[in-house]
Design a protein that fits this description.
By secondary structure, the chain is α+β, with helices and mostly antiparallel strands. The protein folds into 2 domains: about 10-150, Porin chaperone SurA, peptide-binding domain (Triger factor/SurA peptide-binding fold); about 165-305, Chitinase A, domain 3, CATH 3.10.50.40. Helices cover about 50% and strands about 15% of the residues. The chain contains 11 helices and 7 strands. The protein has helices at about 10-20, 40-55, 65-85, 95-110, 115-125, 130-150, 160-165, 190-205, 205-215, 235-240, 275-305, and strands at about 30-35, 40, 175-185, 225-230, 255, 260-270, 310. The strands form 2 sheets. A 4-stranded antiparallel β-sheet has the order 4-3-6-5, with helices on both faces. It has a 3-stranded antiparallel β-sheet with strand order 2-1-7. Helix 2 (about 40-55) packs across helix 3 (about 65-85) and helix 7 crosses helix 11 (about 275-305). The protein starts with 7 loop residues before the first helix and ends with a strand.
Length: about 325
């Protein structure tokens, strides 16, 4: 049986969790549902909420049901990816140097100065360091899997890129700090309802929390945040839709191959190109490559998800 968002067992568990959050032994650990052979328990939900709060403290602004949805969706994404990855590798394991590079980028974002400090913080907050590392290892292996599968399908027209760069103005360009929400629907008639829910949650809880609740992108785990991007590197369709947006504003939904995209401008700054044609070409090729890989990742994830069996226990 496919699980519902507000499963009775999960709802009852969250009521218990609300009153016993500081005492893990106060409730019984139960299997709530299975994703193929991967089980999800009450303890998993408990730890997922705590993990997500480290990188997204704004989750505390959500009510209990919303926190449940966010943690459930996050676990489901990881478990689906893990299930698919294990069709290609024997275990979830990556070289230490790659894992440490990713860990450093993660803990630096939340102002930890070293891996030792970060691991101590996890232990102090009753989070299993090895399980946290596994979550990041899944991210690395998944990205490598997508690259291996779709690298040959990436379309890069170097001549066109060069022409685009040469035709662009070299002064008063915008660099944008952006966040995203990508949502999907199973049929066209659901669009207005789903979009209305997203808008309502943006208004009530903020864009980051709405991304945590609704976005199907991997960026959902960090509140939809993408980072700083040169506006002229964005594809023409997206660039036109956000060209008039100011700091704090977000776009109407933009139809993409993997769902409806809403972009928020978190911040902006002007810059002038210290022009080096080879560097500009290289940067834009890298950006367009990552953009296409992200699209392939979402499409492949949705394909895998359709073949995954969710069972409530």
């Amino acid at each position: 049986m496919r699980i519902n968002i507000f499963s009775k067992h999960l709802f009852v568990f969250f009521l218990i969790l609300t009153f016993n959050f500081c005492n893990l032994q106060a409730f019984e650990n139960k299997i709530l549902f299975k994703i193929d052979n991967e089980i999800i328990t009450t303890i998993d939900i408990y730890h997922e909420v705590k993990f997500l709060k480290i990188f997204n403290p704004q989750i505390n602004e959500l009510n209990d049901d919303e926190q449940l949805i966010v943690s459930k969706n996050s676990i489901i994404r990881d478990k689906i990816k893990k299930t698919e990855i294990l069709n290609f590798v024997e275990e979830i394991k990556v070289e230490d140097k790659f894992l440490m590079n990713l860990l450093k980028s993660k803990y630096s974002q939340i102002e930890f100065s070293s891996i030792v400090n970060f691991e101590n913080y996890l232990k102090e907050n009753d989070l299993n360091v090895n399980l946290v590392k596994e979550k990041f290892a899944i991210e690395l292996i998944w990205n490598d899997l997508i690259f291996q599968k779709y690298n040959s399908k990436i379309l890069i027209d170097k001549k066109k890129i060069k022409s685009e760069i040469l035709s662009k103005p070299k002064k008063n360009l915008r660099e944008l700090s952006i966040s995203e929400i990508i949502f999907s629907i199973s049929k066209k008639s659901e669009f207005e309802k789903k979009y209305g829910q997203v808008l309502k949650d943006i208004e009530l809880t903020g864009f980051k929390n709405a991304a945590l609740i609704h976005s199907i992108s991997d960026s959902a785990s960090v509140g939809g945040y993408i980072g700083w991007i040169k506006e002229d590197n964005l594809n023409e369709k997206i660039r036109k839709r956000i060209s008039d947006l100011k700091k704090g504003e977000f776009s109407k939904p933009i139809l993409t191959s993997s769902g409806f995209l809403i972009i928020k401008v978190e911040d902006e700054k002007k810059y002038e190109i210290d022009f080096n044609l080879d560097n500009e070409i290289s940067d834009l090729i890298e950006f367009k490559t990552n953009e296409q890989l992200n699209q392939f990742s979402r499409l492949y994830f949705n394909k895998v998800k359709k073949n995954i069996i969710f069972n409530e226990l």
